Amino acid sequence: MEIQNLFNVKDKVVLVTGGAKGIGRMISEGYVTNGATVYISSRDAKACEQAVGELNALGKGKAHAIPADFYKEEDIKKLVEEFGKRENKLHVLVNNSGSTWGAPYDEYPSAAWTRVLTLNLHRVFDLTKLLTVPRKGRQRR
Q1: Tens of pLDDT along 19-50?
Q2: Which domains does the chain have, with CATH numbers?
Q3: Do 30 and 58 meet the contact criterion of CB atoms below 8 Å apart?
Q4: Which of 18, 86, 103, 104 has fewest C-beta within 10 Å?
Q5: What is the pTM of this model?
Q6: How far apart are CA 89 and CA 3, in angstroms?
Q7: Which one-letter DSSP state was computed for residue 1?
Q8: What pLDDT is attached to residue 141?
């Protein structure tokens, strides 16, 4: 493999969670700028659509929005279902959605810790598994 092709993403399919804002938005732009088809997911549907419009104006790759609230397991399943209707392959998954809770350790509520773990750990596992483990009647991604 030639070194200039090592990181070539032209015509690759990418899913970026939390891809509408911040670091996720910058990651999405990097992929679109280099010719990838990028699916952006975030709980903020309006921000997803805005980011998609801006990214598609770059004219290189293509961006699409599939909004989902990653705190909700059913939204993860809907995202995977919708993605599967549009694509039969996934080359790159960027698990960027995440949260934190600002409180001193001794004041940190257990419910907040559970919420952070749900989004930052459990949903990463859930989404990755649903997108990569082959199932009856579904092509391997």
Answers
A1: 999 999 999 999 999 999 999 999 999 999 99
A2: 8-132 (3.40.50.720)
A3: no
A4: 104
A5: 0.89
A6: 24
A7: -
A8: 44
Contacts of 71 by beta carbon, 8 Å cutoff, 6+ apart: 43, 115, 118, 119, 123
Structure tokens at 104: 């001193």
| Helix (H), strand (E) at residue 116 | helix 110-117
Contact partners, residue 128, CB within 8 Å, separation at least 6: 93, 95
In eight-state DSSP terms, residue 42 is -
Token pair for residue 14?
């990418």
116 and 66 Cβ atoms separated by less than 8 Å: no
The token pair that represents 107 in the structure block: 């004041």
CA 118 to chain centre: 16
Kindly report the CA angle at 47 between 45 and 50, in degrees rounded to 5? 110
Q: What is the DSSP string of 64-105?
A: EE----TT-HHHHHHHHHHHHHH-S---EEE--------S-G
C-alpha of 66 from chain center: 9
β-sheet bridge partners, residue 94: 16
Task: Tell me the residue type at 6.
Answer: L
